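User: Please predict the structure of the protein below. I'd like the answer in C-alpha cell form so I can feed it into my own downstream comparison script.

Assistant: Understood. Taking the following sequence of 434 residues as input:
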Amino acid sequence: NWQNEALHLPIIIDERVVGELIFSVSLEQIEQAFISKQMELVSDLVHGVISRHLSLEREVELRKRAEESEKATKEFVAMINHELRTPLNGVLGSADLLSKTQLGEDQRQYLGNLIQSGDLLRVIINDLLDFSKMNAGMMEIIDKVFAWDDLEKAITGVFAAKAAEKRIHFSIDKKLGIPEFLIGDLERITQILVNLIGNAIKFTHLGGVVLRVEWVNGTAFFEVEDTGIGIPLAAQSSLFDPFVQVDRSAKRSFEGSGLGLAICKNLVDLMQGEISFESEERKGTTFKVSIPLKEGQAQGAASGELAVVERSDLAGRSILVVDDIRMNQVIVTQMLKKLDITPDLKANGLEALEAVKNKDYELIFMDCRMPEMDGYEATAHLRQKGFDRPIIALTAGTTIEERQKCIDSGMDDILTKPYTATDIEQIMCKWLEQ
C-alpha cells in the first residue's frame, strides 16, 4: 500500500494485524515494483520472528496455567482426602469400640448395619480419591520390602469370613518357590487383589472363589477364579472404563462406585504389569494379573524385627496423643484403655513440646494438621531437642508427598485414618521396646 512515496506493509499473524512496516522511498531513484518485492521479503522475515515470539509466549502461558491447575488439583485432593477421612475415622472408630461392648441382639444387628455401611462408604471414598489422583497423574507406587506372609494373611483375614457368610468357599492356591520377601507396593498389590476377590465373592452365590499365585522369573502371577454369574459379553469391552457397573441382574443389587476395576488397571499399568480376564455368563470369571517384583531380604520393620512386644506388655505404658479434634482424642483414648493404657492428651504441637518437658513418654501419636503448631514442626523440634522415642503420625494424608513430609520431619511410622483398635495395638507392638 503506497501512500505519498511511503510503503505500508501490515504484519498479520493468525488473521490479526499485529504491526505495520513503513518505509519512505524516493521513487525517482528506485522502481516501485522492485522496492515492493524487497520489502515483502523483509515483511516475511519480521513476520516469522514475531510469530515465533508470540508462539513462545503462548507456550509459556499454557505451561504456567497447567502447572497452576496441577497444583490446585493436588491441593484440592489433599484437602478433600483430609476432610472426608477425618469424620469417617470418628464413625468407624466409634463403631469398632462399640462392637467390643455388651450389646443386645437387636443392638448388635444395628451396629453391624452401621459398620457395613461405614465400610462401604470408606471404599467409595477411597475409590473416588484414587480416581481423582489417577486423573491428576498423582497415583504413586511406593516400593518397599514386604513379607509374602503379610499379603496372604491380609487377604485371608478380609475374605475368609465374607465367603463363609455367603456359604461359598474361598481358598489360596500358591505354587512352591514364592520368595519369603519381595520388593513392591504391598498396599497397592493388596488393593488390586481385594478389589478382584471382593467382586468375585459379590457375584458368586454357589461354589466359590480361588486365588492362585505363582512366581516365575521375577514376576508374580495372580489368578482370581470364581464360579459366579459371569459378565455379559456386551459389557466386557468397557469393563475397565471408569464408573462402569456391570448390573448382572434385572435389579441393581450390587453396591459400589464403578471405579474399582479402572483403578486396578491403572495400578497394574503403573507397576508395569498386565491385567486381563475371561468370562462366560452363568459359568464364572477369571481375572489374571502379572506384576514384576524383585526378591527382597528381611530388613528392619519390614521383616518384623521390631515387633518385640506382646499385647500383655503394653499395659501401663506412657503414651502421649496429640490431636486437635476432640472426637479423635476420645477414640484413641478408648482404644488404648482396652490395652490398659491411659494416655495424656494434647491439642497441638506447642502443648506437646511442653508435655515432653515434664514427662518421659515411651511413644507419641502425632496428628499432622493442627493449629498453633502442626505435627511436622512439633516432631522436628522434638528431634532437635534429643527426643528419640517413636513418634507415629496420625494422618488422613495418603500422597507420597505427605508421607515423605512425615518421614522428613522425624516421624517413625504412619497410621492412616480411619484406623481401628487393632491397628493401634499392632503399631505399638511394632515400635515399643520391651
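That's the full C-alpha cell string. Residues 32-98 form the longest helix (67 residues).
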